[in-house]
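Notes to self after the call with IL:
- keep both proteins in one doc
- input above output, always
- annotate only the second one for now

Protein 1:
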Amino acid sequence: MSRIYCDTCVYRDLFEGRKDRFRDLADFALSVFRKVKEKQYKLVISDWVIDEFKKHCDVKVIEEFIKQFEKEDVIEIVRTKDDENEARRISSSNYPDALHVVLAKKGNAIRLVTQNIEDFAEFQNLIEIVRPESL
């Protein structure tokens, strides 16, 4: 089963009910996580996602959410100094997103899911970057 890694924005879209001018981003995020529950994908999540998420929302929200998935459908990745160094090596100007890429690859994700495609443009050669609605 293919593995996907969701950028922090996807979780925030869901829990903050975010919308853009024309679309309900929470619906797209929910669709991604529904596909994990339906076993179309395995979800790779990192401690970096959790750290970024808790800057905006109560960390218990995401922790409880992740517990709703079956254990075998979630791969939890913990970053190391080597991961951080690799992120700095692959991007001198976009460390936060580079670290997401490094951790997604560490978890053997084939796609990184984000609404912020432009933020990840420099990493297109390392991992497939897709919007939630493209899954």
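Protein 2 (the one to annotate):
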Amino acid sequence: MSGWGEMLAYTWTNNVPPSRPSINELCFYRRYLDKVREKKRKSIRLLVLGSTPEFRDWGVEEDLDITVVDKSKEYYDTISRELRHKNIKETLVISQWENMKFSNEFDIIVGDLSVGNIEKERVDDFINAIYSALTPGGYFLGKSFFWTDNDVVLTPEQIVINFYHNKQIHPYTFINHQLGLYCLDKERFEIDFSKMYREIVKLKNNGNINDELFDYFENVGWNTDMKFTFFAPTRQFFEDKIKQKMVFVGYIDSLEAYSNLFPVYVAMKEGIK
């Protein structure tokens, strides 16, 4: 996947959930951190997949031993400007997640949209790497795009009409996931961001949205830096893959507008250390 550099990091700061973790979602991560604390109160080791500032700040606030694994030092350096805790102490490892290896294990591994950003041909490598990095009894949690054949697919025009009846929700938050489902290639398990952008442009040109609403999508990277497809498997596909190595605890409805397609998933490595 290309595009993960300084410019995308700057663009990413314009995003809101579901492209970033919400406060609501972090409550669920805390719930499973508490389960780890029941067995181990000190020196809890956190592995963050990617440079997500929300997770790194959370790690500081929870007094965790933080390691970040990202394939781009440039992206890490740039997005770190978003941190609230500027003197953060953490270890950075430059690696693709599918290839990462560690001498020590982690009690909890978190990743926002990490599944969507792996090489789809290397799902097994990714899960094997997570399994190897996780301590027995530890948890792997994240959020990503998953779908089922029963999901209702709306046209872009229908999505916008529904938005105008739910204006209390941020436009990007309300429209992103539903438009992603419309643009999903179900055979390839892929979402092409440029296709999503073309649909937004079409809505503007046809008068379905005004300039103000269009501006929410103009600088989020769909038509510029995000020159890659997003891996979007079915819920069952991902669950079956996890079960080959770990216990699949389940999908969590975070009660966000997008949680039907962007649920938080929880997996656990069996055994107690």
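Annotation: The chain has a mean pLDDT of 93. The radius of gyration is 18 Å.
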